[in-house]
Protein 1
Amino acid sequence: MRKTFSNDAALNAKVRGWWHANPFNYFVDAEEGSWAFYRNIDRKFLKWIPFMQKGGYPFLTNYIDMKGLKGKKLLDIACGTGVLTEQFIRMGADVTAIDLTPKAVELTKKRLDLYHLNAVVMEADAQQMPFADNTFDFVCAWGCLMHMPETEKAIGEIHRVLKPGGKMLAMMYHRNSVHLRYAIQLGRGILRAKYLTYDDQSLINRYTDGAHVGGNMLAKFYTRKEFRNLFSQFSDVMVAIHDNHGVPNQLPHPWLPLGKFLPKNVKEWVCRQWGMTAIITGTK
Ligand SMILES: C[S@@+](CC[C@H](N)C(=O)[O-])C[C@H]1O[C@@H](n2cnc3c(N)ncnc32)[C@H](O)[C@@H]1O
């Protein structure tokens, strides 16, 4: 049975501590806070999610009418290093960015200072947001809702702070993915017998974000049906599954990457069926 984590303050504190110590810097080794640091993060972000935009800047154009954000009130949840915050500001949106950790707030503020950009950037918990009802035209929650003990509550908060007719986009992890089912549960859990030492949730935490430092505190994966249930209070909900072709390329194993000989359309089909990245969009 899947674990539930409702109202788990101790776990939330652990999640906060972990992300504060391990800010999501895409393994960039340039001097933290430098121009090279932020631009290398942007480059890696683009390489990781080619399916989100045609070409390069601005990001996310396949899912967000970026030009249409001009003058709109936008909330960027879990700003991390400000990779998306910067994009939204450059499109002319009136941006508020939040993150659970002081480190992410510091890194996002440094990025904006570097480019003389302005936004409200503050420490806040998405599960309990300090904003009035019906405040924002657009809410983006990229790579964060699955790290929160109370994911349902955070989604309810997104709905609450959106204006009627406002739109949201979230990126979360897809459960029926090569990454989870094949690499983690089969590869690590069963074939390498890690299920002898980890329960399923601990195994997932161990081998997703932060695998190089022993794993993170909480990473939840959902099926398409579960996403639809989670976001059922929104209308026009769409769930799209993606990955980049690096995933099928490495099948059946990174040491035997026969998948790279698959036709491009087969690789794309694998990514759309069993990719790890779920993009959820909806309207209040
Ligand atoms: C994988 S990182 C993604 C950061 C950024 N969105 C990006 O793509 O680079 C996850 C982020 O979620 C933040 N986070 C986790 N729980 C949160 C919460 N309850 N409220 C706000 N931010 C949270 C973490 O501090 C961390 O910065």
Note: DSSP finds ten helices and eight strands in the chain.
Protein 2
Amino acid sequence: MTSSKQNTFDFAPRGENQLHESFKQGGFTTLVEIPTPPRQVEFDTSAKLAAEIVQALEQERGFAAGLAIGDKTLSIDSHGAASFADAVVPKSMRNSSVLYISGRGAELGETADSVTESLASGFRNLIMVTGDGYSEHSRNRNEKSPCVDSIHTLTSLKCSDKASEVFPGAVVNPFKYNEMDLLPQYFKVVRKINCGASFLATQAGWDMMKLQEVRWFLNIRDLHVPTIARLMLLTPDLVKRVLSGDFPGVHISRDFKLILENEMRYGYHQFAAAQWRRLQLQAAGCRLMGYSGIQIYGIEVPEHVSTVRSKIEEALSEFNDFNEWKDAYIAHISRADMAPFSHRYYLYKNLFQERDAARSIVNPETIAAPSLLEKLRHGLRKAMFSKDDQLAPDEHRLFKKIFAGCARCDYCRLPLTQYVCPENCPKGVANGPCGGGAADGTCELRDTPCVYAERTRIAVWLNEMDSLEERYVKHPAEASKVKSV
Ligand code: SF4
């Protein structure tokens, strides 16, 4: 299964997009993730540390690798990702690297500016994300944490004269274990691809059945987009941070936590060895499942870069057979349940039992119907507001506030969103959920269920599921012709 193509990839400058080429040739790329630092950390200090990792990677010629520069992942108040990437990534490596563009705390025009800035610095592989809303200031204080939905950035780019210059990507978070959290994630993936996403990166996770689920879903739906799995190389500190919710949408199950605690008991070196082995198994599994690469978070010192190379290459040649890999992986995790919640919803029943998605059975669990209250609310709103997307925003203002909980919008989207106001989502996203919700479906920023659970239940009840994949709901600023990319 290890392809010789993956060893023919280096950083010599070429006119072509090396990441795109690697995908086309069926290579397997390793991206090392470096988050853009928060503003409270001095730019030069962080850039110097990152540059050392980059230099170490640059020396690994012949290894299919690049960088993934995260945007606003550590803090909403971060240095600009494009300027940070410009300072640390050598020009010859930009075509093999990806740059994230986050809508966290941004306005529509700002993500457009970030795309322009990234292109000017020679970064063409851009992953659009809505962004985490987690903030010590907003959690559970009913404050808004507005974000530009990745769908808007992708659409704005698709309609712009920059479209041909960018190889756009998007993110999928399959690590959801309630039906009403998982289904909207997949509806949104289809929407992202419809809006121009040409490759996908997953959220970080350790549940390999979920990573297989993504590949099966894409294959079954004939969505042949290259996919990169984001993996985390855990340290004891990272374990604590994941468990305390520092990485919205990233979950550690109870069983997996016990394994990690056990590994920590024998000292740092044993713990580190177990993490490298887990990373190897995950990388090899991803390759066998049809992933085009992995993105590793947690490489903090330059010395780890050559270890990454040797471990990944070793793993890719160790496993050529899916069943052998599966047995090794299951033994390594001691048959632990990787689902972090009592619900354990997977889209397909026979993940891991079959290698071929075509022979899989869609999970026949019935899709939950809306509650009586939800049905009544929907009927009432429909009777009152069915034309409000075409009316002046002030029309029915008071009634919308009382019966739909609406905030003040310049453009009413109720008839387009199953009458569930997108402004009830603290991020204000109207085209599908973010990936940051908790394992039990609770909103990332509130102790209430994600608004997309109700909207999806109503859409399924009304047989309007297509609208969740196909209908583009404009950003309110678009109605007033905000500048696009
Ligand atoms: S309501 Fe849903 S989409 Fe909105 S912030 Fe919460 S989890 Fe994300």
Note: The two ends are 41 Å apart (CA to CA).
